Batch of 2 targets.
Target 1
Amino acid sequence: MARAGDHIQTTIKKALAGSQIAYSTLLDTFWNEVYGFQLKRTENENDAEDITVQTFSKAFDKLNTYNADYEFKTWLIAISKNIHVDLIRKRKKNLETGGHQDVVKKVLDDAPSAEDQLIREQNLASLLLHIKKLKPHYQEVINLRYFKELSYADIAKELNEPINNVKVKLLRAKKLLAEVIQKK
């Protein structure tokens, strides 16, 4: 009988081979645990969500450095803790000095997912109503990607965020939008 850990290791291998569905599966599987962990630490939904987005962004960017001897969730939580500590340091420093810089990173090509297909099948008026139910930053990435048809790099410039953050936000926004559509 296959263990849950074996399934995760297989999914990680597929992600490393470039499967967008595998990345989406990892995000869906571990989002709530990382977000919940950060919500307890920060006691702030926006900070918890931002840190969780950054955690997956960094994890996906450095996936080739993941050591399978350790649980994937433990690795994600460690990244998440470090991002939170960095955020606290950065805020302290910004209070003293002010200013920040972001670096745009490489893009993973994305094949259409089940969520993409569901989103495409909606008529525009009802789709816009569904989008309005999402948090503003998710509305924004959906708008930039699907209505303004911007590339990940252009969205990253527009939002002044690292490209991997944009990709994770878009994955998350598509999942949430698909859930809203399926509820109707």
Note: Residues 4-96 form a domain with the Rna Polymerase Sigma Factor; Chain: A fold (CATH 1.10.1740.10).
Target 2
Amino acid sequence: MELDEHALIEQAKQDPKRFGPIYEKYHEPIFRFVYARIGQLEASKDVTSSVFYKALANLKKYQVRGLSFSSWLYRIALNECYDFFRSGKKHRTVALDDYMGVNLLEELQFGDSEQEVWMNSLPVLLESLEPKDLELIEMRFFEGKSFKEAADILDITENNAKTRSYRLLEKMRKEVKKLVVK
């Protein structure tokens, strides 16, 4: 019978060799999260390794207090990505597939005339966002994370995540409307 996650974490706190099942469970999702932000295979592997090294090194500090273990790992991953960008003065990019813009498009409820403008202007709109706002939009609409998950990872309240999301959507909607009028 598989132990629940909390029991696995407690065992790994006592014996780091027991960290394996946790690593196996989260390695791929954390790698995808990192790769989506960095976009370079080898660098993403390195950053992901660093995430798990730091998670294991700080596992004894982790306590269940409303923050899920996965959110704790994603927060470490996000911070490692920030460190990666700061260390090399690299710029963050967002890989856009057509389907990603569709999730936002559905939320914004544009008419037919605005949809094409939206899809064409999305990269510029995303580039204009502050990094913390871009992370929130990306987590919510590209990665499908709940407001609670995004809030936990970004270390903000769930209500703050909702409010910021809707304000950002409204800001982007207004920008697209301006472009349609031109």
Note: The chain has two domains: 5-88, 98-181.
